[in-house]
Amino acid sequence: MAAARASTSEAHGAPVIPVNLDFSQNHFELMGLPVGFALDRAALEDAYRRLQGQLHPDRFAQSGDQERRLAVQGAAWVNEAYATLKDDTRRARYLLTLQGVEFNDERDTASDPVFLMEQMELREALEEAPEAADPLGRLDALSGDIAARRKALSAQFAEALDADRVDEAKTLVLKMRFYDKLRDEARRTAERLEDELL
Amino acid sequence: MALLQISEPGMSTNPHEHRLAVGIDLGTTNSLVASVRSGVAETLPDAEGRHLLPSVVHYSADGVTVGHEAKRRAALDPLNTIASVKRLMGRGVEDLKTLNGHIPYEFVAGEGGVPRIRTAGGDVTPVQVSAEILRVLRERAEASLGGELSGAVITVPAYFDDAQRQATKDAATLAGLNVFRLLNEPTAAAIAYGLDKGQEGVIAVYDLGGGTFDISILRLSKGVFQVLATGGDSALGGDDFDRAIAEWIMQEAGMAGESDHQRMRKLMMDACAAKEALSDSDETELSIQVAGDQVWNGCITCEQMNCLIEPLINKTLAACRRALRDAGVERDEVIDVVMVGGSTRVPHVRQRVAEFFGREPRVDIDPDRVVAVGAALQADVLAGNKPDEEMLLLDVIPLSLGIETMGGLVEHIIPRNTTIPVARAQEFTTFKDGQTAMALHVVQGERDVVDHNRSLARFTLRGIPPMVAGAARIRVTFQVDADGLLNVSAREELSGAHAAIEVKPSYGLTDNEIETMLRDSMSHAREDMEARRLREQQVEADRVIEALDAALAADGEALLEAAERQAIDAARERLVAARADGDAETIKRAIQGVEKAGEDFVARRMNQSIRKAMAGHRVEEFE
Predict the structure, then answer these.
(1) In this predicted structure, what is the pLDDT of residue B234?
(2) Domains observed in chain B
C-alpha cells in the first residue's frame, strides 16, 4: 500500500482522520465482511453508512477539486459494492467472478428442459393473471411462489459454492436470473393493473 | 493500486469560524430563503416582515423589480412581467412552442437553442430571470445575517432532469451564489422534519404543489437520510383540482365549452376560491358570470368537490404504491407521512393519504416553508459548521438512464431509483461485419422503445478495427455525480478506441412531454411489450436474411441441389414479406420457415468447415 499523501488540512495543523480506500479490494473486503454467500445484513447496512459517511461528496463540499473527484469515485464504488452484495443473485454471481468464472450475458442461459418448462408455465400463469377473478391477489400469490423458488435456489447455490462445485453454482445463478426476470415481470403487470383500476 | 487518502472535511476549517450558509426554495409561485441561526433553522423575512417572495420579475427601461412590486405590475404590464419562470428553466425554443397558451411572452431564439424573452429592459433568458430572484434572496440573507454568504443549497423538484438542474445551477452562479448542492424538494422536507423530530425509520414525503406531485420514501437512521425511491407525476397538482371544479361549474351552469379566455381565467379563480372555502366549511355559494351580464348562482358541497377530485387523488396514491414497491417497503413499515405543498391543505387529500398509509399525516411544519428550512439545515452542514454532525443524504436518480440499441429499443444501464453517485458499465457489440464506428444515443425514461423516452445526447465512437459482426467489445460507462449530472464514455476494449461526452443538453422536456412520458410509462407497458417483440423479430429477421445471403453466396452453388435452392429462396421471400408488414408472430414463423428450409444446408456447411479445419491436424489435437 502506498504511503499516505499529505493532505491540505495537515498543512493547517487541523486534525486529520485518514480514510484509506484501496480500489483493488473486493466488495466484501471493502465492507469488512467475510467472503461468502451468507450475509449479515445489519453489518452490511452499518458498513455502508459508515463508508458513505466518510466518502460521500457532501463531506467534501469545502475541499479541493481533486478530493471531490476522488470522493465521487469512492462513493460510487461503495454504492456499487452495496447494491451488489445486497441482492442475492448479484452477490452469487459476484462470488463466482471472484473465482474467475466468466459470464456472457448474450450466450449463457439455462438449458435444463424441466426448469425451462417450469419457467414457461410460470410465465404463462403471469400472462393469464390479469384475467383471474382477483388479478392482484393472483399476482401476489405468484410473486410469493417465485420468491420461494428463488430462495430455494439460493440455498442450493450456497451448498454448491461451499462444496466447490463451480459449474453447478454457475448454472444455479443463471436460473436465479430467470426468477429475477419473472419477479420484474410480475411487478410490471401489477403496476399496469393498478393503473387500469383507476 | 489506487489509493485514496481523504481527510475529514469538517476538521479542515478553523473550528471557531462560522460560515454563513442559506437554503433557498426557488418555487414556481413563491420563493423563500432560510438559514440556521443559533442552532435553529428559520426562514428570513424582508425589511417589511414578509417571508414569501413572489417569483415574479418586472423589466422596464428603468431597471428590474422583483417580488411583490413586480407582481403588482403584472396586470398593467403583463408582457414585461415574468412569472412562473421555473417552468421555462432548461427548455428550448422548440419546447416553448408547445407550452400552449400558458405563456404570454414574446420569445426570440438565442444561441444554442436557448430562448430569450423580449422585454422593455432587453432580451433575457429564463436563467437570468431566475438569477434576479436569487439575487434578491441573497441580498436579503446578507442583510439579515450580516456578512457575505459562503454558499447555498438550492432545491429542485425530484423529477427535474439534467438540463433543468444545470439551468438552476447556472442561475445561482449568475446571482453570485456558491452552490454547495442542488437538493430534491421532498428530501429537503424530510430533513426539516427528521432532524426536528429525531426520527428513525421509514418515512414518506407526500408533496402536492400547484402543478406537480412528488412522492419520496426515505429511511432515516442515525442522521443518514437514504432515499429508497422517488416517484410522482410532473403534471398533477392543485391546478387540476381547480380545473375539475371549473368543469363541474360549467356543466351545472350550462356554459358553452368554448368561452373566451378571459372568462375561463375568471372561472378558474372562482373554482380555486371555492376549493379553499371548502377547506373549512361544508358548502360554499357560487356566483358565476356565464355570458355577458348573465350570472349563475349555485352552491357546491364538500362532498361534491371530493367526488370531483377523487380520481386525481387516486392517481397520487397509485404513484405512492409504486414508490413503496420500488423501495421494497410495506405500507405498515412507514412510521410517518410528511405533507408538503399547498394542495395538501385540502382535507380530503389528507383523509385519503391517512387511509392509504393507515396513519394521520404530519402537518405540524408549515408546508410552504418546510422545504427552505430543510435546505438551510443541509447548507449549514455542507458549510462545515457542524463537524460532528452525522447528517448525510443519499439520493437517487428519478428516471432510468440508457442507450438506444438495434431496432430503436432501449437498454437501461442505470435503473430509476439507483443511489447516486453511481458508475455503471455495459458491453455492446457491432451488428455488421467490418463496422468501424458506432453511434451512441443516450436517453432517459422508463419506456422500452426509444422514441418515447427523452433524448439526452448523441455521440459516435470511431476507430473500431474492422471485425466480424459481434466480435468487437464496446464498453459504455455511465457516471452520475451527487448532483445528478451524467457523463458517458465508450471504449472498444480490443483496440482502445475511445469517445466521451458530458451530457449537458441545451434544453429539457416540455410539460407535455413529461406528462405524456409519465402517463405512457404507466399505461402503455403492454403496447411497449408488443412493440418490443415486433422490433426484436424484425432485427432477428434482418440478421437471418443477412446470414443466409452470405452463406448462399459462399456455398450455395457447391452444396445445394436446384430444388433445395428453390425451397430456401421461397422461404427467404416469405420472410422478406413478413419483415416488411407482418406482426411479431408472423415474422417469427417466417424465420422458423427459413431455418427449417435451410436445415440441411446449414448441416452440410458445418460438416464442410469442420473438415476444412481438421485437414492436416492429427486426431489427438482434438481430444
Answers:
(1) 67
(2) 21-237+308-396 (3.30.420.40), 238-307 (3.90.640.10), 399-508 (2.60.34.10), 515-614 (1.20.1270.10)
